[in-house]
Amino acid sequence: NLAFVLIAALLVVYGEPLAAGSGIPEIKCYLNGVKVRNVTRLRTLFCKAVGVLFSVSGGLLVGKEGPMIHSGGVIGGGVPQFQSLSIKNFKFNIPYFRSDRDKRDFVSAGAAAGVAAAFGAPIGGVLFSLEEGCSFWNQSLTWKTLFCTMTSTFTLNFFLSGTLDHSWGSFSQSGLLTFGVFENCHLWTLVDLIIFILIGVGGGLFGMVFNAINTRLTIFRLKYLAKTHKIARVLEALLIGFLTTVVAFLTPLWIGQCRAILDENSNSSLQRFLCPPGQYNDMATLFYNDQETAIKQLFHHSGMHAWTLGLFFIFFFLLSCLTYGSSVPSGLFVPCILCGAAYGRFVSSFLIFLYFQKIKTHIYLGTFSLIGAAAFLGGVVRMTISLTVILIECTNEISLSLPIMVTLMVAKWIGDIANHGLYDIHIFLKSVPLLEWEVPSIAKSLTAIDIMNTRLKFVYPHTRVRSIVNLLRTTAHNSFPVVTMKLPEIESKSKLASANLRYRLVVSLPQIFYSCFAVVNQEIISYEKFNEDYPRFTDIHEMNFDDLNLNQIMVSGLDVTPYMHPCPYVVHPDSPVPQVFNLFRTMGLRHLPVINSRGEVLGLITRHNLTH
């Protein structure tokens, strides 16, 4: 186990640190409009896909579904570019899909395809991208994403059916995670619905505690482990792997109970451990099987003692909370489903114990296990619509839609009382300027002038190359207002003419350096030339000026008017912050100039101003 965990940790720590965790927070930030470095690189995909294989094989309490979502996003972002930054010579200058908006749409479709492949839920994948990912959506993106998820589900089903059952074309495997056939799952009453609501309350409380503990662990890792030598993070992963192996071995030995095998159909997945022939160890059956098989045991087979279920829930809760956030690729969906299934199964066992004669005849243990899984998963990640559809598509039982919806809503409401979903917590701890659906309550009474940045750097329509080079070298801004020259006797501030992005200025400089054209006969760079190196443009500090005649070049003029945005979005200083927030969120903005009624530039608003 430790050898496999070591490989997974080395791939993350020394290969690509962004491959740690599920990758869903990073994909969510990218689709929100935030530029996350290396999130869609081929190296990240390799470390994530290979690392999660060794994480799962090493016995860590992680899932592979979350990393599949990130992997799908990487594939979606890389395929239409027809190039790789990790493989230097692999590049095709195809002029299509070379903009942030196009790439964002492909990443969104790829992430949805990852959900569809993991759970066999094409519609759930579309709703996942809509609910958790994209902040700007349109009808065209809906059917494109649905086509992508449908293709992903079809492809996986075709190859899984052929390789596992040797029945090519039968489509018997809808996804990597299947919950089996639920028998008599429609037998729930109004009284049961009330119990499901209480299970949702418990799931929200458990999710609240799970997120609070993991927040403390993440703060500790960011404060101490992230600043120490890389080997410390590798040793932490090995320590977690060792602790998980010890618990998985000792709990069946000390706590597990030997029970008679009553169902011959489930004999293959029951673990005998040290029990006599014809019996199995219930705790070993949960720990020694893979997590998908353990979930099916809780959903469909009896024979688990309530004492075993309760202790398994506690140990699995703590170990999975400890594991998520360490330096290994790790998903969260399946561990939460298994932990919640044990919780729901414990509740049903407790009810049978209290009211054996009255309710045993109609209680179906699998229904309570599924509701418990939905409650705990909803309490941790705080998703509602997409998670409901994903669970319904996994179970193939529409009759459970109402209990699942009610449980998820209650779990989310209870959990939101104390903290946010785990993905949002990790985004917040990394100080990523993510724009949520709603404007922060503290900013509702503010206006644009209260949050704007007044320390601006300007660009004039016709300026010296020396000024542009000094500006780019001394600042890290990605957008510069293009202003007209002010008249000292008339105007107090420069008037906004347009806005220009950093990469456009950088790309336009070599044209001046290597041709030394004057401003009157400056050659206009084409749109295809601008986007030729997308998405990694040359940095100003990487340009070599040693062999150039700097005296002649630096005094040359540069006309930026062909490359500037002629009609940027602007706001008045008295505009309310909720209006500014909606502009950023719905239009995918990164910068927003603030001008007065005379067109004079007063400041600039960025995502950082809206989130800090």
UniProtKB/TrEMBL annotation:
<keyword id="KW-0406">Ion transport</keyword>
<feature type="transmembrane region" description="Helical">
    <location>
        <begin position="106"/>
        <end position="130"/>
    </location>
</feature>
<feature type="signal peptide">
    <location>
        <begin position="1"/>
        <end position="15"/>
    </location>
</feature>
<keyword id="KW-0472">Membrane</keyword>
<keyword id="KW-1133">Transmembrane helix</keyword>
<feature type="transmembrane region" description="Helical">
    <location>
        <begin position="332"/>
        <end position="356"/>
    </location>
</feature>
<dbReference type="Pfam" id="PF00571">
    <property type="entry name" value="CBS"/>
</dbReference>
<keyword id="KW-0813">Transport</keyword>
<dbReference type="GO" id="GO:0005254">
    <property type="term" value="F:chloride channel activity"/>
</dbReference>
<dbReference type="InterPro" id="IPR014743">
    <property type="entry name" value="Cl-channel_core"/>
</dbReference>
<dbReference type="Pfam" id="PF00654">
    <property type="entry name" value="Voltage_CLC"/>
</dbReference>
<dbReference type="InterPro" id="IPR051280">
    <property type="entry name" value="Cl-channel/antiporter"/>
</dbReference>
<feature type="transmembrane region" description="Helical">
    <location>
        <begin position="306"/>
        <end position="325"/>
    </location>
</feature>
<feature type="transmembrane region" description="Helical">
    <location>
        <begin position="234"/>
        <end position="255"/>
    </location>
</feature>
<keyword id="KW-0812">Transmembrane</keyword>
<protein>
    <recommendedName>
        <fullName>Chloride channel protein</fullName>
    </recommendedName>
</protein>
<keyword id="KW-0677">Repeat</keyword>
<feature type="domain" description="CBS">
    <location>
        <begin position="564"/>
        <end position="612"/>
    </location>
</feature>
<comment type="similarity">
    <text>Belongs to the chloride channel (TC 2.A.49) family.</text>
</comment>
<keyword id="KW-0732">Signal</keyword>
<dbReference type="GO" id="GO:0005765">
    <property type="term" value="C:lysosomal membrane"/>
</dbReference>
<keyword id="KW-0868">Chloride</keyword>
<feature type="transmembrane region" description="Helical">
    <location>
        <begin position="187"/>
        <end position="213"/>
    </location>
</feature>
<feature type="transmembrane region" description="Helical">
    <location>
        <begin position="45"/>
        <end position="63"/>
    </location>
</feature>
<dbReference type="InterPro" id="IPR046342">
    <property type="entry name" value="CBS_dom_sf"/>
</dbReference>
<keyword id="KW-0129">CBS domain</keyword>
<dbReference type="InterPro" id="IPR001807">
    <property type="entry name" value="ClC"/>
</dbReference>
<dbReference type="InterPro" id="IPR000644">
    <property type="entry name" value="CBS_dom"/>
</dbReference>
<feature type="transmembrane region" description="Helical">
    <location>
        <begin position="362"/>
        <end position="381"/>
    </location>
</feature>
